[in-house]
């Protein structure tokens, strides 16, 4: 991941991340997804209930307006997915801002949730998704085993991961940031983490970035975002480093923590795909270019992330 202005994973940019998020000490949840199955938490998992709501009416209207593809080739991966009648999405129900279950509606809301439903509508003609919960440790295995068709999970594109799976996009850009308890002094940059205890999610790209800037930092790894926040809140850690968007979601659901201004890396998020289906990567990239060009991407951002982040809609990252 799991890390924008704005939407696995991180150490998870353009104006996308720096401007909007730096200004927003808080972030929120957003949008909608469909059915769910599976188990476990994912990069960026957040156990707290979001205190903000995205513009679900706008998201629903955008999904309804999405026109199905008319050029799906027989025998292609897209044709197979259309025939199976649902898009199997590796993701989460617990990532504030990107993919968070609203217990009052039973729907998953967020930028990732909305984008996956839009892709399902484009392929199948209806926004039918089957959400399979994934972790940073299981994403590649599920894709390689063809147990999911896609992964939308604040999934940072890295050369190492690209040897195992394919990535469409990037479709979102984030950056590593620092979260501390409110009232903390003496920490304003990664370099200030020397000698400090830093928590982050296992499977993320954080340890490399932190050690480069603060070689004496003591890094503790946890499986979920929730565990990291608990360690920070309980004074078992001095700071939490992860993607800015995920940390900002924590600040919405946990009033004891705050995100420090600034990001320290560029974390391009990709849509994870099986490596042995190159036709599907081309198909999804073409779709991404379409929704960026016709304004749908910007409208989804505004209806989800933009409900909490001030400022103009960021420019999406270039696909490919």
TrEMBL record:
GO cellular component: extracellular region; outer membrane-bounded periplasmic space
Extent of the signal sequence: 1-30
Superkingdom of origin organism: Bacteria
Ranges for domain Solute-binding protein family 3/N-terminal: 86-308
Keyword Signal: yes
The keyword GTP-binding appears for this protein: no
InterPro entries according to UniProt: Bact_solute-bind_prot3, Solute-binding_3/MltF_N
Keyword terms: Signal, Transport
SMART domains in UniProt: PBPb
Biological processes, Gene Ontology terms: amino acid transport
Similarity annotation: Belongs to the bacterial solute-binding protein 3 family.
Name listed for the protein in its UniProt record: Glutamate transport system substrate-binding protein
UniProt source species: Actinacidiphila guanduensis
Lineage: Bacteria, Bacillati, Actinomycetota, Actinomycetes, Kitasatosporales
